[in-house]
Amino acid sequence: MKVEFAPLNIPLARRLQTAAVLQWVLSFLLLAQVCIGIIVILIIHNYWFLYVPYMTWLYFDWRTPEQGGRRSNWVRSWTVWRYFKDYFPIHLIKTWDLDPSHNYIFGFHPHGVLVAGAFGNFCTNYSDFEQLFPGFTAYLHVLPFWFRCPLFREYLMSSGPVSVSKKSVSHVLSKEGGGNISVIVLGGAEESLDAHPGKFTLFIRQRKGFVKIALTHGASLVPVFSFGENELFKQVNNPEGSWLRTVQERLQKIMGFALPLFHARGIFQYNFGLMPYRKPIHTVGKTTAFSL
Q1: What is the DSSP string of 7-71?
Q2: Burial class (CB in 10 A: 0-12, 13-18, 19+), 111
Q3: Structural domain boundaries of the chain?
Q4: Where would one find the signal peptide in this protein (predicted)?
Q5: Which residue from 8, 158, 167, 196 has the fewest beta carbons nearer than 10 Å?
Q6: Which burial class, exposed, middle or buried, applies to 46 when counting CB atoms under 10 A from its CB (0-12, 13-18, 19+)?
C-alpha cells in the first residue's frame, strides 16, 4: 500500500486544526488513565499534603456531576476549540424556534465513535448554539464512569458535560422558568459499535427512560440528527455474532462503555492512524418539538 503523505505547504490554520483535534482524541483515549496514574504516584510517594486535601474535597463534591456540573466559560472559550470545530468543520442547524420558557430533551443520533458533533456543538463556545438558541443552556449527558476518574472529572466538567444518570437529567429538566436543554445521545455505547461509514444503525427501540423523564418534568422532545458523524472513522469489521462483536458486547456490559476498534488517518499522512477524517458534520434539529 502506497502511503499518501500530507503536503509540506499546508496552511498554518489547518495544522493548528489538526493539533486541536489530536489533543482532543488523546484526551479521550489517555487523559483519564494519566490522571489516575498521577494520583497513584502521589500516594506511592506519600505526597499526602497533595492527595489528602483533594480526596477530601472529592468526597464532598462527588454528586456535582448529577447537580448541573461545574462548567467554565473560560475553558469553553479556549481558542483550541475554534480550531477543533473548523477541522471537520462542525455546523449546527436550527429548523424551528424553541420557547426558552420551557425545558427540552435533545435526542441525539447517531453516537458515532467519539461523538464529535455533540461535543463541538454543545461543549464549546464556538458553535452557533448561543445565536440559534438564545436564552438556553445545553447540558451534554455522558456516562457516569467518566466522573469517577479523579482530576479528569474536573477537566471534563469544565466543558459542560454532566452525568447521564436519572438524577442528573431530572436536575437539568426541573429548572423553573425553563431554558435548559438535556442533550442525550440515546444510542449510547451500544450504538458506537455500529458506527461505520455509509451506515446508520440506531438503537432507540429499547430507549424509553428519557421519555418517562420528559413526561415527569413536562419537557419537550426534540429529535436531533448529526449527519457525517459515522464518516469520521472506520472500524474493524464486527458484524453481529462475530467473535469480536461478542467480546465487545461483553466488555460493554462489564465496564459500561464500548471499545470500538477504530482507525482513520494519521497526523502527517492520510492512510492510517487515529485522527478522524476531515468530513463535515451537520447537526440538525427536527422541524418541531414533541410536547408530552
Answers
A1: PTT--HHHHHHHHHHHHHHHIIIIIHHHHHHHHHHHHHTT-HHHHHHHHHHHHHHTTGGGTT---
A2: buried
A3: 12-291
A4: none
A5: 8
A6: exposed
- For residue 209 the three cell numbers come to 427512560
The pTM of the full predicted model, rounded to 2 decimals, is 0.94
Instruction: Give me the DSSP letters along 86-155.
Output: HHTTEEEE--S---TTS-EEEEEE--TTT-HHHHHHHSSSSSSHHHHSTT-EEEEEE-GGGGGSTTHHHH
The DSSP bridge pattern shows strands 290-291 and 220-227 to be antiparallel
Tens-place pLDDT, residues 247-291: 998 888 877 778 899 999 999 998 999 999 999 999 998 755 555
CB 90 within 8 A of CB 121: yes
- For the chain, how many helices (H) and strands (E)? 12, 10
